[in-house]
Design goal:
By secondary structure, the chain is an alpha+beta fold. About 25% of the residues lie in helices and about 30% in strands. The two termini are about 50 Å apart.
């Protein structure tokens, strides 16, 4: 979708270009159910006032939000669901390391002191917000360092 606003001869124009089956651009062509049906390719509005400028900025903001939502959905689709940490209560007290720092910093603060707790299948670094680290995701790092 392309949105253009311009002024000419005392008029304010707002032109909105829409996707249609015949569009070929930088992206892959859009998929439509029935390409033989008529499609709107462009909407053009004209007025003597400057009220279309507000509409122009609102449409651009809506387009940005839509693109960000699609990117976020694409990123979330690639995430791997981790199994929950299992607490090991069989061997007596739980192994813990206190007053350690996690690098890179977990929060935006300069230093984050916390506690590292060992579980059956991973670790949990606890500060204000606990972070689970599943062992099968980091075992290669531990053995290569």
């Amino acid at each position: 979708m392309v949105v253009i606003s311009f002024q000419e001869m005392g008029y304010t124009y707002l032109r909105i270009g829409l996707l249609s089956p015949s569009d070929t651009g930088n992206q892959k062509p859009p998929i439509f159910a029935d390409k033989s049906k008529p499609f709107l390719r462009e909407l053009c509005y004209r007025t003597t006032s400057t009220s279309l400028n507000k509409v122009f900025f609102e449409v651009r903001e809506l387009k940005k939000r839509m693109i960000n939502r699609l990117k976020q959905q694409e990123q979330q689709a690639s995430l791997v669901v981790q199994e929950p940490l299992r607490i090991n209560n069989k061997d007596g007290p739980i192994a813990q390391l206190r007053d350690i720092q996690c690098k890179p910093n977990v929060s935006r603060r300069t230093k984050t002191n916390g506690k590292l707790v060992a579980h059956e299948n991973g670790f949990r670094f606890t500060t204000v917000n606990p972070l689970p680290f599943i062992t099968d995701r980091i075992h290669t790092y531990l053995y290569t360092v």
